[in-house]
């Protein structure tokens, strides 16, 4: 039976008790609306630690549009059931006040700067989003304490911002996890539920575009502009309202796509299909499927 801790403070006490027993903790932070992508993180947290804990908290600070926060799907009972089936030891939930304290009333400009990985792409399209993410995650870690914490590479900029945050926090290890996809290549997301079958099929074009860039990379092309053209060639054939399709050097992050040839690269795509905003990314490398 899963333990439901109904405040982050209760979770803090629980985690302290676990550590006193010299057990390791695997932690997965979520906003609920769970899908197999989340469960893949849970499976890993369970496999690599003595106990596992998840949180469900829809963080108001990371929504740059009030309407998106309002529309965010919430079904706590069903999420907790899924976590129980997945074999999680404990889950914690709670109010914005309990999770965020006074920070819940701050504007994103008043929060700590989330750093270089917030520049460009999602940072440019969702102003204030990453400052809100950084704030809540630093608070989540203050409750859970030393642990291994699992984050999806689907949200690549997010995982890098959190990795940099964790470098300042003793005992917290960040484990980036690969993106779980549907058969069509579409990245699993809570938002996919809002797509029709046809929309889901059309959304497969995002993965095809990233694969086209990867095929060119495998053939030895390293010029960002050419790799980007390969993606745009595919995306322009589909029914996607494109926001961006760009490359970055994942190690030497810049707000804009670099012009000179890259030693390592990642592609990033965001666009709308049937009014649903989808994002995805992939490392370019020989034999890459992720
Ligand atoms: P969210 O509930 O959207 O905040 O996501 C919670 C965690 O699940 C984050 O670390 C996400 O990056 C991760 N996640 C979301 N979708 C996927 C996916 N398709 N594959 C792997 N991890 C994912």
Secondary-structure topology with pairs:
Layout: E1 3-5, H1 8-20, E2 25-30, H2 36-48, E3 51-56, H3 66-71, H4 76-86, E4 90-92, H5 96-100, H6 122-125, H7 129-144, E5 147-152, H8 156-166, E6 172-177, H9 197-218, H10 224-235, E7 241-248, E8 265-273, E9 276-284
Parallel strand pairs: 1-4, 2-3, 2-5, 3-4, 5-6
Antiparallel strand pairs: 7-8, 8-9
Helix pairs in contact: 1-7, 7-8, 9-10
Bound molecules: adenosine monophosphate.
Summarize the structure.
The protein is an alpha/beta fold and 290 residues long. It contains ten helices and nine strands.
What is the radius of gyration?
A: 19 Å
- The CATH class of the largest domain is identified as Alpha Beta
Bound ligand species: adenosine monophosphate
Number of domains: 2
Largest sheet: 6 strands, parallel
Number of helices: 10
Q: Which whole number gives the mean pLDDT? A: 96
General shape: globular
Please name the CATH architecture of the largest domain: 3-Layer(aba) Sandwich
Give unreliable regions as ranges. Answer: none
Describe the structure.
The chain has 290 residues and is α/β, with parallel strands linked by helices. It has 2 domains: 175 residues, HUPs (Rossmann fold); 93 residues, 2-Layer Sandwich (Pantoate--beta-alanine Ligase, Chain: A,domain 2). It is 39% helix and 19% strand. It contains 10 helices and 9 strands. It has a 6-stranded parallel sheet, sandwiched between helices. A hairpin with a 2-residue loop joins strand 8 and strand 9. Helix 1 packs across helix 7, helix 7 crosses helix 8 and helix 9 runs antiparallel to helix 10. The two termini are 34 Å apart. The mean pLDDT is 96. The chain binds adenosine monophosphate. Adenosine monophosphate binds next to helix 2 and strand 5.
